[in-house]
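Let us practice reading a record.
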Amino acid sequence: MSVHASAIVAPGAVIPDSCTIGPYCTVGPDVVLGEECNLISHVVVDGHTRLGARNIIYPFASVGVAPQDLKYNGEPTQTAIGDDNTIRECVTISRGTSKGGGLTRVGSHNLLMAYVHIGHDSHVGSHCILANAATLAGHVTIEDYASVGAFSPVHQFCTVGQYAFIGGGTIVTQDVMPYSLTSSRRENKAFGMNKVGLTRRGFTPERLNTLQKAFRLLLNSRMNTTQALARLRELEGDDAKVLADFIERSQRGVIK
């Protein structure tokens, strides 16, 4: 393995020979790295933290550090990160808390841009993009293929649905519907389907047409939510059902 002379790797850390540990990095004793991880420089990885393969972490990022929770008392909670993630400068990822499930989890193939914060007990799926200074409070869930815009804070216990896109500077205090384009002008509002993002992800015209109908029922009809959900379940395909199920199980309500 390539470990710079100025790096500090604690005894007990598990680091494969294929990894690179750059200048002034600090790796704690309970850290396990996967193959071909690259800590460029000035990176801190601490706590009971496990990274998958081929993650690249840029300078001044802190991964698996103690949560920003006054109730935390040094319990051996965990951080788990998948494969092929890019974690840019000054990102902070806090480990879990004993009362919040004990685990902060990040999936695979994510881009976490500079100054992103992932709070304790948050769960980020795979293929997500969190833009500069996106901030997840504790217990936030970001489902697969979602994008959170720059300078967007997400309130505790909120869920951002799969394939959703949140515009920059949006303060998220309720759940964000899957497949939606949600942004803030004077107030938070779902503007309909995330058509550009879904097209880029390979959604067929048939799937897009079904979702367009679903969002018209939810946002532009005169039906109440219960009536709109019943109509959603009559639409063909799984996407409308995913949308309806998400709204029905929401605990904080959804942004409409």
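A brief commentary: The longest strand covers residues 188-193.
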